Amino acid sequence: MDAQPTQNLEDNNVPGSFPEPVVLDRYVLNVDEPATHKPTDAEFFISDSVGKLRPNHVMLKDHFFKEGRLEEEHALFILQETTEMLKQEANLVDVKSPVTICGDIHGQYYDLMKLFEVGGSLNDNCYLFLGDYVDRGCFGIECLLYLYALKLTYPTKFVLLRGNHECRHLTEYFTFKRECLHKYSEQVYEACIESFCALPVAALVDRKFFCAHGGISPELNTLNDIATMDRFREPGSHGLLCDLLWADPVSGFGEEDKPNSLVPKGTTFLHNATRGCSYFFTYAAACQFLDRTHLLGIIRGHEAQDNGYTMFRKTPTRKFPSVITIFSAPNYLDVYHNRGAVIKYANKNITIRQYNASPHPYWLPNFMDAFTWSLPFVGAKITEMLLAILSICSEEELTEDGSSEEEEAESQALADMTPADYQQRRQNIKNKIMAVGRMQRVFQLLREESEAASELVATEDVSSQVAAGLRVAPDALNVQGTQIGRNIRSFDDARRSDLMNERLPVFEPDSSPSASPTTMFPPPSMRLPSRRAGSMGEGLNMEMLIKKTLEEDEDDSPIVERLAERIARGRRVTGRPQPLKRHETT
């Protein structure tokens, strides 16, 4: 008789057994995994009509869509080649129609792909971008490299202007520098900054429309003022370059002549308190500029718009909107719920094309990995366990008299040490108990920070601070998730919550005698993983926060005193541990 084969006890059919877990497959199969392959030279380079090497923009479009990255040398090739090309362009670029005019992008690469769908083919169209390609969104480097690759391939079809975020000061203060360091390197970031300084600052479309990121300036009398300025530098806190990047139409633009207007009659420029620099320009200032330059209208970006665009009051002579604001980042910051829009100008007709936001991959705040993000949660549980161990004595056990055996053990323990040794041991135990309690507060704080990291402030906290002209440094970019859900229900709510981020970040000038006077902004330190503000206005990382907490000097608790006394005297503890608290993350 043939022997029956023995059944493997680990067989899946055996009751109580479990199949071998598969840890290499993706948990959500309908979401494609990010591209891990970096293009080779053969895949990255193509030759143009004259045999010059150019980046393969068709490959890059799909590669970046799959969250792929480039070899550093390829990224530097795009940045350096584009910088040299941009340096050859004038400060004020002439653009011929038909053209699609695009507003702020802000690192929303997947919405940029939608923009090109609605913007039209390059066969009978060109593109004019008004700046702000990076910061706030998580795909700024992809937006920049792809647009630069298109610029290298189609030099006359793409005109890229500079926005206020294309500078060292804001990219260090917001997210772009951190993004470059996470995805590439410091060298790539520096190459980006060099390219920003080479971007033109304004454009004329058919010699009819003045296009810039921000607006006009009291220093802008003729278009020649732009043609002769020095753009190859970091923007200062004032001056023509600053105004072209930062200026805004005044609130109530076009209604300054009404009795209830707060703008003094005849005013053309007001200090821009919302931005903390540059000016608000009035309807009168816009009309005077258009009359002096014989232009039809001003087209600019710089401000989020609920519908993606706003057309302001028409000029009295040509009956055309004096100012048009265009914004091309739909559902800005994932909370504005706004539409994106572009302007299509062809055959002397203007058409506004709107579009909604596209789905995009999710990044943890500050480009953290999941392990780093989870550390505060793990730490909080560890400290809860330590506190539970220290809390195994009930209140009654701490106050009741010990048994004869316990008193004998305590007497023996006290006999083996001097009074000074006993007091030292008691103090050491007390310090450890206090340290565990402080550590619990640290990890609870970090846990809340990880759960609710955002770049918005609660709306009820904004108005008074903005009215006072305050900027709460990195802490201005933080709010609890519950507050976001409670306060942001509309575009206006999001705008109020984000108002403080519209300001030019403040800095403390060097007042030492050796400091040289300058209008340039020294770069602030990069944002730390935690955006809580410290006494010096910087965010606190975990190490610093733990150190500061352990150094706190608090009033002694009677419970801690008695617990330290019991442990120091050698008392045996017998109580049941208290249950650990449960936390739910939503």
TrEMBL record:
<dbReference type="InterPro" id="IPR029052">
    <property type="entry name" value="Metallo-depent_PP-like"/>
</dbReference>
<feature type="region of interest" description="Disordered">
    <location>
        <begin position="506"/>
        <end position="530"/>
    </location>
</feature>
<dbReference type="InterPro" id="IPR006186">
    <property type="entry name" value="Ser/Thr-sp_prot-phosphatase"/>
</dbReference>
<keyword id="KW-0479">Metal-binding</keyword>
<feature type="region of interest" description="Disordered">
    <location>
        <begin position="399"/>
        <end position="421"/>
    </location>
</feature>
<keyword id="KW-0862">Zinc</keyword>
<keyword id="KW-0904">Protein phosphatase</keyword>
<dbReference type="InterPro" id="IPR004843">
    <property type="entry name" value="Calcineurin-like_PHP"/>
</dbReference>
<keyword id="KW-0112">Calmodulin-binding</keyword>
<dbReference type="InterPro" id="IPR043360">
    <property type="entry name" value="PP2B"/>
</dbReference>
<dbReference type="Pfam" id="PF00149">
    <property type="entry name" value="Metallophos"/>
</dbReference>
<protein>
    <recommendedName>
        <fullName>Serine/threonine-protein phosphatase</fullName>
        <ecNumber>3.1.3.16</ecNumber>
    </recommendedName>
</protein>
<comment type="similarity">
    <text>Belongs to the PPP phosphatase family. PP-2B subfamily.</text>
</comment>
<comment type="subunit">
    <text>Composed of two components (A and B), the A component is the catalytic subunit and the B component confers calcium sensitivity.</text>
</comment>
<keyword id="KW-0378">Hydrolase</keyword>
<keyword id="KW-0408">Iron</keyword>
<dbReference type="InterPro" id="IPR041751">
    <property type="entry name" value="MPP_PP2B"/>
</dbReference>
<feature type="domain" description="Serine/threonine specific protein phosphatases">
    <location>
        <begin position="161"/>
        <end position="166"/>
    </location>
</feature>
<feature type="compositionally biased region" description="Acidic residues">
    <location>
        <begin position="399"/>
        <end position="410"/>
    </location>
</feature>
